[in-house]
Amino acid sequence: DHPEAERVHVIGKDILRFHAVYWPAFLMSAKLPLPTTVRAHGWWLRDAKKVSKSVGNIVRRDHLVWDFGPDALRYFLMREMAFGQDASFSDEAFLTRYNADLANDLGNTVSRVAALCRQSFGKTPNEVCTDNDVMRAYGAARDEWQAAMTDCQFNRALEAVWR
Question: Of 58, 64, 62, 63, which is closest to residue 76 (Cα–Cα)?
Answer without folding.
Answer: 64
